[in-house]
Give the backbone structure.
Amino acid sequence: MVHDIAQLGAGVLRQTASPVNDVNTGEIRQLIEDMHNTLATSQGVGLAAPQIGVSKQVIIVASRPTQRYPNAPLMAPTVMINPSFTQRSEEKDKDWEGCLSIPGIRALVPRYSRIAIHYLDEQGLPIALNLDGFIARVFQHEYDHLLGKVYLDRVEINSDIFAESEYFKLFDIQTANA
């Protein structure tokens, strides 16, 4: 099933998501399938369960070039259950983010550029990975949804928030000058 994406203002986006106790329940299997289907029909590079109205600690990171993120690196859709992370350096990079739950807006958001993540995969096996750059950013963005936060909560100054139409104008100018 493809779900509508919860939009900013929906209560589920501000709740702390509950951990998944058993990855093999029918409820969780269906949630994962629905998240895959919903993400596949979007221009997104990640999705969190709260974005489809389910306050559970499940995210999918699926980096790929899209119209919204034309330079995104490839990463197969990866389900991450009960994820956590630690920073691998103090360094944060400020870069552009958007969100399926906040259409039409982009903002410059500071994120750790290098992180170590831990999660359970779809079979319930523990996984540990190091992530860098764009994929580390996507993970942190989706992880925030599990905390009841959206990327706008991380913006340092309001002038870092742009209408997406203005962002694309800026992107076109930067591309032309590169």
